[in-house]
Design brief:
It holds the Pfam family Tub. This protein is an all-beta fold. It contains one helix and 15 strands, in the order E-E-E-E-E-E-E-E-E-H-E-E-E-E-E-E. The strands form three sheets. The protein has an eleven-stranded antiparallel beta sheet. A two-stranded antiparallel sheet has the order 8-9. The chain is globular, with a radius of gyration of 18 Å.
C-alpha cells in the first residue's frame, strides 16, 4: 500500500470553500506535487488535474506548471506545451540554516494591461524557462517578488517579522512575500498548527 503527502487549500469566509488539493507523486526523484480541483480525484489523467509543482534535486528551485504537455515527452508543440506559471528560488544565507531563508518568487508579467492578460511562457528548451531567464538576466517580462527580511530581536534572540497579531505559532515557515515597487502588497504565509498553514493577501 502506498501513502502520500496530501494538502488541501480552502478559502475561509463565513464558511469553508474548497479551492484545490495537491498530493506528492509516488516514486518521484524530486519533490513533485500534482494539483487538482477535485479533493477526491488527484490522478494525473483525471479531468480535474490542473497542474503540478516540481523542484530540482536540491529542493532549492521550484516551478509551477499548468496541465499542458511536457515538451520532452511529446512531439506536440504550440499551445499544447505546458505553461510555466511561477518559479520559486531559495537562497542560502551566511548563517546557513540558523538564519532566515532568502526567497525569490517569479511570475510572468502582464503583456496586455487593458485586459490584465499575463504573458504565456511555454518553454520548449530549458534556456527559455522562467528560472533560466532569471539566471541569465532576461527577466524583463517577469515580475520578481522577495521575502521580507526579518529583523534581529535582542529580547527573544531571534529573527522576527511583524505579522500584526496573526501568528499563533513561531516557525521558520512563517514568511512575507513583497514586491519592491509596491510594498503595500504582501502575501503572508503563517504556520497555525502542526500541519495547518494560512495565507493572507494584503494590497
Amino acid at each position: 500500500m502506498w501513502f502520500f503527502l496530501l494538502f488541501r487549500f480552502y478559502k475561509f469566509q463565513k464558511f469553508q470553500i474548497f479551492l484545490l488539493a495537491a498530493r506528492k507523486r509516488k516514486k518521484s526523484a524530486t519533490a513533485n506535487y500534482l494539483i487538482s480541483i477535485d479533493p477526491t480525484d488527484l490522478s494525473r489523467d483525471g479531468n480535474s488535474f490542473v497542474g503540478k509543482v516540481r523542484s530540482n534535486a536540491l529542493g532549492t528551485h521550484f516551478t509551477l506548471y499548468d496541465n499542458g504537455e511536457n515538451p520532452k515527452k511529446t512531439s506536440v508543440i504550440g499551445d499544447a506545451v505546458r505553461q510555466e506559471l511561477a518559479a520559486v528560488i531559495y537562497d542560502t544565507n551566511v548563517l546557513g540554516f540558523k538564519g532566515p531563508r532568502k526567497m525569490t518568487v517569479l511570475i510572468p508579467g502582464i503583456c496586455d494591461t487593458e485586459n490584465y492578460r499575463r504573458k504565456e511562457i511555454r518553454p520548449v528548451l530549458e534556456r527559455d524557462s522562467i528560472l533560466e531567464r532569471w539566471k541569465t538576466r532576461r527577466a524583463d517580462d517577469l515580475i520578481a517578488m522577495h521575502n521580507k527580511s526579518p529583523v534581529w530581536n535582542e529580547d527573544t534572540q531571534s529573527y522576527v517579522l511583524n505579522f500584526h497579531g496573526r501568528v499563533t505559532q513561531a516557525s521558520v515557515k512563517n514568511f512575507q512575500i513583497i514586491h519592491e515597487a509596491d510594498r503595500k502588497f504582501s502575501e503572508n504565509y503563517l504556520k497555525m498548527h502542526l500541519m495547518q498553514f494560512h495565507v493572507f493577501l494584503v494590497h
